[in-house]
Structures are given as C-alpha cells and as structure tokens.
Amino acid sequence: MKLRVVTPITTVGFACAEQFAPYVRTDTELSHVAIERGPASIECALDEALATPDTVAKIVEAERDGVDAVVVNCMGDPGVEPGREAVSIPVVGPCEAAMHLASMLGHSFSVLTVLERLRHRVEERARRYGVRDKFASARAVNIPVLELDGDRPAMIAALVEQGMRAIEEDDAHVLIFGCTGMFGAAEQMQAGLAARGYGGVPVIDPIVAAIRLAETLVDLHLSPSKRTYPAPPTKARCSSE
Amino acid sequence: MKLRVVTPITTVGFACAEQFAPYVRTDTELSHVAIERGPASIECALDEALATPDTVAKIVEAERDGVDAVVVNCMGDPGVEPGREAVSIPVVGPCEAAMHLASMLGHSFSVLTVLERLRHRVEERARRYGVRDKFASARAVNIPVLELDGDRPAMIAALVEQGMRAIEEDDAHVLIFGCTGMFGAAEQMQAGLAARGYGGVPVIDPIVAAIRLAETLVDLHLSPSKRTYPAPPTKARCSSE
Amino acid sequence: MKLRVVTPITTVGFACAEQFAPYVRTDTELSHVAIERGPASIECALDEALATPDTVAKIVEAERDGVDAVVVNCMGDPGVEPGREAVSIPVVGPCEAAMHLASMLGHSFSVLTVLERLRHRVEERARRYGVRDKFASARAVNIPVLELDGDRPAMIAALVEQGMRAIEEDDAHVLIFGCTGMFGAAEQMQAGLAARGYGGVPVIDPIVAAIRLAETLVDLHLSPSKRTYPAPPTKARCSSE
Amino acid sequence: MKLRVVTPITTVGFACAEQFAPYVRTDTELSHVAIERGPASIECALDEALATPDTVAKIVEAERDGVDAVVVNCMGDPGVEPGREAVSIPVVGPCEAAMHLASMLGHSFSVLTVLERLRHRVEERARRYGVRDKFASARAVNIPVLELDGDRPAMIAALVEQGMRAIEEDDAHVLIFGCTGMFGAAEQMQAGLAARGYGGVPVIDPIVAAIRLAETLVDLHLSPSKRTYPAPPTKARCSSE
Amino acid sequence: MKLRVVTPITTVGFACAEQFAPYVRTDTELSHVAIERGPASIECALDEALATPDTVAKIVEAERDGVDAVVVNCMGDPGVEPGREAVSIPVVGPCEAAMHLASMLGHSFSVLTVLERLRHRVEERARRYGVRDKFASARAVNIPVLELDGDRPAMIAALVEQGMRAIEEDDAHVLIFGCTGMFGAAEQMQAGLAARGYGGVPVIDPIVAAIRLAETLVDLHLSPSKRTYPAPPTKARCSSE
Amino acid sequence: MKLRVVTPITTVGFACAEQFAPYVRTDTELSHVAIERGPASIECALDEALATPDTVAKIVEAERDGVDAVVVNCMGDPGVEPGREAVSIPVVGPCEAAMHLASMLGHSFSVLTVLERLRHRVEERARRYGVRDKFASARAVNIPVLELDGDRPAMIAALVEQGMRAIEEDDAHVLIFGCTGMFGAAEQMQAGLAARGYGGVPVIDPIVAAIRLAETLVDLHLSPSKRTYPAPPTKARCSSE
Known about the structure:
Chain A is an alpha/beta fold and about 240 residues long. Chain A has eight helices and eight strands, in the order βαβαβαβαβαβαβαβα. In chain A, strand 3 (about 70), helix 3 and strand 4 form a beta-alpha-beta unit. The mean pLDDT of chain A is about 95. The interface between A and C is small, with 5 and 5 residues.
C-alpha cells in the first residue's frame, strides 16, 4: 500500500516521511510532499484558502503517481473536500478523522489548538463534520505553529495544563491535538495527565489517526462518496495561465 | 458610498456594474470587477477553492481603492471568510445574506440551485450560517451556470416548477435563487408562482439582498467581528512567487 | 417611502419620530405612534400579551394610512406575528432583525437585556427565530426599561461591563442591545469596549437594524410570506365590544 | 381539589363543565368559564393574541376564587405563559401537556390539526416546548374549529385518514388531536385505526391530558417555576382604562 | 387500579409498598417487588445491564398478575424499554417521567445525581428522551446510593447546596432528584432552597412523578405505542436454561 | 495482536473466526466466541437486554485471556457500554464504528436493517453516537436475522433495492448494512448498485469496520475514556447466584 502525506504549507522541514514511519504498517510505503505555493503555516481562514489550490494539485499528482490514499497534514483539513472531487482515491483530513475517532472513545472531546483565534473555527469544524453534540470545547496553548517545535517541554506542559482545564471545566472525556505540529506528543501528554490524576483520558494525535484511517479505507476498498464529491465538470479553471 | 461587486469567475461578460444600478441607492457608486485567475464558473468545491485566492486579492484591492463594502457575486460565498480577515470593511456573501433575509420572512426557505450535485452543499451552508432549522430543502433546475442566460424563459419555467414543488413537497414558505446568475428574475418568478396559485411567497434574489445588506452595514458603521475574523498573522504566504 | 414606528407601550415620550431621523434615508418619511391601551413598559410575558392587541390595531391602521412598512419598537417583538397576518406590508421586529444581522457579522452573539428575569426569554426568542446555534448568552444590566434614560452614563457603563463579560466568559463575538430603550448608544459602547481592549466587536442597535431592514424590504418589494402569515379567517373577534 | 377550565373563545356553548366530568377524579370539583372578549374561535396568531388578555384575567380570577389549578381549553395554549407569571397556582396548556405525554409514549408523535395554515405553528410549538426531536409532523383535517362538532363521523373519518398517513408517511408512533374541539373522540379514533390495521397507536386527547396533569401538579404541590415565570413588576398596564 | 413498583436492585429493604402509600390515590392498590438477580444498587452501565433481565421478568409477571401499570424504581430506567415490548400495560420510568414533568414546569432543569460518574449518563438520557434542549446540567452530591438513607440531613444539605449551584451557575429553573433513593425529600429541599433565597423552584421527586403518570395512563387507557415497542418475535431467548 | 469477536446470540454456527480472516491483518490473531445464555438472534430491545449480561462476561473473559481488543458482533452494540466499564482494553461496536466511518465518507448515510420494527432504534442509535445530523434514514429489507443466510441472492437484491430508494428518496450518500448477518456482501452490493447507475456509493460492512477500528485502537494504544466508562464500584451484583 502506498500512502502520501501532503503538507499544505511551504515551510521547509516542517514534516518528512521518516517521522511517520513508526505509525504505518510494515507493508505501507509512505511518501511525503509539501506544497510549493502557499503560506508558511496555517493559522487562519486566509492561510487555509491560499494553501488549498496547491494542496489539491498535490492530491491529483498523488493519484497520478499511483498512490492509494492521501493524508493532508493540517488540522484545518485544507483541500480535502475539493481534493475528493478531483480524485477517486481516499483523501483523509486529520481533523475529521480525529473528531470521529474521539467521538467513538467517549462522551465528549476537546481540541487543544494553537491560538485563541482558532477556537471558534474548531467548533465550526465539529459542526461541519456532524459531531457538534460530542464537542466539549476548544482551548488554545497560545504557541504559534512554527514555534511548537522549538520548545517541546513547554508545548507539552501547555497541553497538559489546557487538557486538565478541558477535563475539569468543560467536561471533556477525550482530548485531541489541535495542530499536526504537536505530532508525536500523545504518549508524553497522557503520562503528564496521569501524573496529575487524570489517567484514562485518551489523547488523539490527529495525523496518526488520519494515517490509520487511510490504511483502513484502502484495505476496505472504500473511497469518499461520489454523491458528495462528484468529479468536477469539465471547464476552464485558470484562465490567466 | 462606494460598493464593489467582485465576480469570482473568469468568464468575461457574466456580470457588469450597470446591471446592478437599479438595485443600489442613488447615492451609491457601484463598481464591478471579475477575478483573473480561477474557474469559468462555480459549480463544485474545486471551483470555489480555485476562485478564492484571487477573490481575496480583489477584496483587498477594493479596500485599498477606498471602497466602503464588497459583495462577492456567487452563491458559494467564496472568499468571504478569508476576505473578512484581510480587510476591515464589510464583505458580504449573497448566500449568507439571502438565507438570513429568508429566515426573517417566513417559517422555512428552500434554495433553487443549478445542479443536483450542489444540493447538499447548500444544506451545509445553511448549517454553517446557523439557520439549519429554517432550511426546508435545496432543489435543482438542472441548468449549468453559464447556460442560465441562454434561455431565460426556460430558466424561469424551471424555477417556477421547482419552486412549486418546494412549496408543496418540502413545506417551503420562502424561496431563494441558488445562483447569482438567476439575477433579475424574482419579479417574473413571483408572478409565475401567483399565476399557478402560489401568491404571497417571497422570492429572494441573493445578489440584490447582499447589495442592500452592504449598504446597510456601511450606513450603520458595522463590519464583521474581528473576534471571528481577526487580521491574519504576518508571515510568508506565497513562497514560490 | 413611508415607514411607521409603533411603540407598544403607553408611556408618553418614550420615543418619537424625530429621534429616528438620523437613521432613515433622506427619502424616507417616518411617522411614530404609541399604543393607547397596554402596559407602561414591557418587561415580562404579561406585558407583551397586554401590549399586543393595540399594537396590532396600530399596524392595521398604518397599512390603511398608506404606510409602506411598520417597525415595532420593542425587543419582545410584540404584535409582529399577528400583525403580519393582518396586513400585507412588511412588519419588522427589532429582536428578529438584530439577531439575524448579528448572525451575519460573526460566530456568535450575546444580548444585553434589562433584567435578569428576561434572560431566558431572549434565549427562547433566538430559538424561535432559528438562530439558537449563534446565541452565546443573554446578560442583564439590571436597570428597568423606564430608568434607562435617567442616567445614560450609568447605562453605558453597565452595557460595557456586561459586554466585556459576554466576550470573555460566553465567547460572544457580536453584541446586541436587549432593549430599544438603549437606542443611540452603540457608538459610545463600541468606543467604551475599544478603550478596554475589545475593539472590533460590532454592537447592534436593534431598532436601527429594524428600520434599515424595513427600508430594504420595501425597496425589494418583499413582504413576510403569506404561507407563514396567511390572512386571518373572517369571524367575530371581540364579541363583547 | 378545585380545577377550572378556561375556554379562550367567546362562542357560547363550545364547552361546559359537565362534559369534562368523566375525566376528573371523583374528588375534583371542576368549573368552567369562557372569556367574554376575544375571538369566536382560535385559528391563527391574531386569534391567539386577541384571546390572551381576557384569558389571563380569567386565570387571575380563578386564583382569587380559590381554584387550585387552571387548564386553558385551546391547543394554542393562549395565555398560559403570562398567566403563569400572574398567579401562583398551576396553569396548564393542553398542547404542552399532550406533546410531553406523547413523547413519553413513543418514538415520535404527529398532531392532527384543523387547518393547513396551522401546521407550521404546531411545529414551532414543539420546538418551543423542547420536544422538536420527537415531532414527526402536523397534518390538517381541513375542518374549521366551529364546524368540528357539526358532523362528528366526518371529523373522525378525517382524523383516521390523516392519522394513517402520519403513521405511514411521517413515521408517527403516537397521535395527538390538534384542537380541543376534537375532545372525546380518542376512543373512536383508536378503534378506527385498529380496524384499518393500526392498532397499538396511542391517541391523545389534549384537554384530558391537561386536566390530569393539573390534578397531578396539585397533588404534588408543584407549580411552574418562578424563575421562568416571576411575578410581573408592578406598573400601569392599561393606561386608557 | 393496581400499580406495581419494581425495584431493580437486590438490596433487601431499599423500598417497600408502604412508603409509596401517601402518593397514590385512595383507590389505587400498590404492590412492590424487588428483583432477585442483579446488583445491590445501580451506579453504572454495568449495574443497569445486570438489573435488566430480572426487571423485565418482574414486569411480565406483573401483567400476568393483573396489575394495571408498572413503575420501575430507579433513575436509570432499567428494563423500561424491553419491558414495554414484553407487555401491553404501561411501564413507566421515573427518569423519563421526571424529565418531561420538569420540562413542563420551566425553561430548564438540572438533575442532582449521586455520583460524578453518572453525570454524563444523565445528559445522554435527556437526549434519549428528546428533551436535551431543556437540560441545564447534572450535578452530583457524591453520596453512594446505599448511603443516602444513612444520614438524611447530610443528603438534604448536599442536595440544597448542589441545587443552588445548579440555579446560579447552570441557569436551572427546575430541579430533579437523580436517584429514587432520595425519595420523600422534595418538601424539605424546597424549604431549604426557599430559606436561602431560592423560593419558587420546583423540586421533582421522580418516583412520585412516575407513580402519578402511571395512574394517569391507566385512567386514560393509554399504553406505550406498539409501533415503538412491538411485541418481541417468538424465538428461543435463554438457550442454556 | 489478539482480537476477539464476541457474537451475542446463542445460535450455533452464526459466525466463526475463519470467516473474518480475510479482514484482519496478517499479524492479527482473531478468536471468536458466542454467548451461551441469551437470545437466538437480536431483533428488539428485549433481545438486546437478554444478550447483554453474558456478552459482558465474555468481554471480561477476553481481557483475562490476554486479548487486546474485543468486537461485539451485532449492530445493536449490546454489551459495549457496560463492557467498556468492566475492562481496560478497547471494546468496539459495529454500529458505532460504521456510523462514524460513514460520516467521514459523505454528506449522509442510511442504514439497511432487517425489520421495520428496528428502524426507529437505528435512528436513536445515530443520535446516541452523536451523528444524528448525518443520518438520512433507516430502511428494512424485511428478512429476519436468521433467514439472511438462507437466500443470499434475495438478500442482496433486497439490499440493492432499499439502497437505491435510500439514495433517491432519502438523499443517502453512504450505505451501511444494518445487521452483521449481512457480512461479506458489500462488494456484491456495490456492484449491484453500480449496475443500476449508482456507482461511487460506499457500502460499509459494519463488522469489518469494527475489526479494523479495533486494530487501529490497539496500534495507537487508545482505549475508551475512563471518564465515560469508569470501572464499576465494587459491590454484590448477582445476589441470587
């Protein structure tokens, strides 16, 4: 099985295929590509909008390359919907995958996002994906995307702090990382929560959830419905080029 | 007052400032611009995605030109959310304006869109705008956007037919055109409905509703909330250019 | 265009045509009338119920006088629904107009009402108008309607205080005055909020929103749906008179 | 125990105490009063609005007369909310009582109302009472209130017909009469349904459900919450009288 | 009329027929039975699951004994749904009865349950019964079921404390006991609340509400809908016995 | 990895480990066990209730046997909630897994269940799992569980027929088998739909979806939240044994 992760930002080195290796099955071949035109990171609607066209191009390219499924590496799920129209293979967004996985693991979930300004966008996404009844809250660690990696202990401390508040104040039963830049910290965070008396609370790493879902869809020969995502009508789409 | 209509498609001649003149106040100066990069028409998520970046650019340009408010000329409201982040003047989408206006005029509304494939997208939009409880249905006339203008009587006949079915079968109390390409047909359609026994059913022309809302917002010194649409953080956004 | 504001209380001098002059278009002729039978102010369900019959009578009278649209001057929207049945011209309620306008300006809105006892009634109204998903909270300034005008600075201070709490504690992105007696204070309140670090939060003055909506409906030849508000069947209605 | 039924219409002979006798407990003393000012029947929002002031007066009078609980004899529940503010004894509306009783008896309910024009008002009422999720549909028998009594077999035939359609087409599991003028027909209707193969479908007679609820509330010393229905502030309420 | 209370736990002496005597009508003959196989008390999903089979057996037995209606004596309503399939007489759950009664008495209700761990289960139940819009919160007194009776003053103090917090912090307008082991304390609790300034807040004793509802259903010849609860198909059900 | 499928019915030969072999990963060891006490098949609430105790016992046994995750082989998901309390390993229900998987694949889903009587139970389950907004309908093939296997071509024909109606009449974009006895028919059904012009509609085989989800949860070291499913308090649970 061939999977491809498309990172919808232009910052070099934000992600690479190697880091995902521990999370794919041994018979899965995972490739990675970042977009070439778009924002340095995704932290607002404008960033998502500018990231989308090249993300869709990379999704189309992946299908042409014989890839079996694509995962978009951003919690805004940019390009997932138009990408599903443009190809026939599964296209998976980590936010959608994580919110549904969380919904299956408990009564309610909270999302720990990077910036305050994104909180209401997370709530809208829960509504968009049909799981608003399961959404407890979005909380922010107040660290920009590109600074998450600079001080991992500080990031984890902030995640544990906001996670505890989500549990106590918002009645969250499951937690989700709100940025794929928090990748790889689930185990440490669960340990941090347990050390403070909050054991047994699942912490979902969305990009990992998305990768596993992509593998499952390929195994089961399932792709997004063509009634929801029919192929785009033929027409001119970039007249000035 | 200066308004600008931004048409988010590249088809030359689809819209022009003159046609909107009867719908603005005498002291309103309306200008029009179409995007230069993007799809020929908007009929799917991919079209919306590709139309968005240049639409936002035109919105930013409008503010720089001293325009007081911008209306995006498409029922998909492409570019409205990122555009609101990028500027401080009101940015109005016809779908949002029409759905809220319809909600104020009756128990429920239906949207008469162009193609079957767009029906569920209209429903998602009603949910997105917080008026899902008012949404009765979306029905399609099955005429592509760029063919609407070719045979206006056929378009109106199809609108009347689907409008009657929305009233009878879906309990719609108010009707909304599902494409700004249906512009100007509200009066004829209301007459057509009345002739068939369905008088007293408001028919909303979304681009007109959006223009009037834009004027109102400028009058009242109201712009979209900066808590929902804060200015984008400074960063590189198109690294390859 | 002829508009009429109907004030559904019997307190002489609560409102007059002159005060609305700055908010209508230059070609709009605005008249004002108060009811003669009913409560001194509206602060509960009983007040609304007793205000309604004469409010409807004034709405019917307005249509007979050749008025083009009526605005009811109270956030309880008394008489709006039966009034719409009784006439063919637009009848606009400030609560409905303000809630939908707020919904278009941001993720969520709070209403700053006069008394604690009205808070749940505001929430019911948001549900009634189909925008419960957009409703963040109702907060009270704890000043009775007829005392609002006695100490305007105190009123504005209380509005700013409750507005800040709505933003911080209830995640409100847009604010609405909860009583038309707060009329005219939007600009000062926005300035007060900005001075405390809450710039960019729209404050909606409901009676002004209602007046503008009435003008728009007349312009667009739109009236409330007769499927929602059919003309009342002919019958005796006040047998003892 | 003393109960009073208040009939909120002015048509003489529409209801009387005797007819309710079989439905009260032997130790319950039931009195009846009709309003003196208001509509001949209730078939629209205007009728409800005009019926309300005198209905509230009759509710206040009942409390003064030492009555233990009041039932309003109309499916529009006119006067129930302001009446609850005005008195401390239970005030029960048949629509609210019937919808909650129906919700406890099955997955979903439909209401069989008199006129098409009332269908959406019934739906709004289900939302108002918090049981929209249980509401299957409202269907009309198309017989005006004051003609229900003229041809009872025709009324029952129409109820059975619409009840069967509600079961088959709208997935109704429980049925509710939509007008208290259908009083007394539940048994016949259940028999009619059973004869056509629809046994086991409860049919709720709302005024009977309301009377029983009133008895229960008196027994349990429960009245509507004064946080929802606080006593009205003291003020002038009918300045012209 | 013959009612039977089925207590779905095996703890001897938890409940008896005599204690319910003050709450049934003089012509009602109330019997009581506890299950013989199942948990000592019900405080989790596992307890409910293990209590259910014998509870259903007792419900079937009641019908065979000529009982007119059954009330299950637990706020988890165990066995109510399968019991309704298995018999034709009314089967009433106190949680369902109390939540609907509360919904009719005010804007919103809170449930005061025994343990924190049950709070989300109460919310799910409100959703299950179709009254999620009326649900304000669930709060816990943190006293296990079987210890409620040991120190009644402590139980009542804890109920008053959590009731006040539900009113102040969660906007509850009506309160419901979250365990039938709190039986009989409503009057004292209402007095306790009134003494602290929270008069006029109804407190519902669910088992009493359920008993009264059962009497009403028998009087009205109403049973749960056989479309929701059809008789189980004939088949082997306990193959190992 | 060790998985165990627990079949919560007593019919010998309904399922076996071998049949699931093609759907597990090569490194997964799958065992199967059926309950010994309970119904022959599950077609109503009573069947679910009677199946639950022994299903939980089998779940507990699985954990004691060192199994990594359990899948319950029935679309009623009996025993899943109490089982999650009783153990620390993942317990997966096919209905929950399938509904969330379907929600990620398209705008809306329908469930094709065995009997009419189960339709409303499926809807309740969609609400329970937080995806009611995604639920289009439940339709029945009208074949009892234990007859599904007798005539597979008839079963598939009925599934295709009801699937087409779900797509056309209920706007379903994704389909789910409503009984795990339909296991293995997804490919044939997708082909049948495509042959009738309904290509691109995913058909989900719930037991397969559940198995894959179980594998994913084990891989990711995720179990259901102990805040939702805390370990049961210690107490006597089967006093008569």
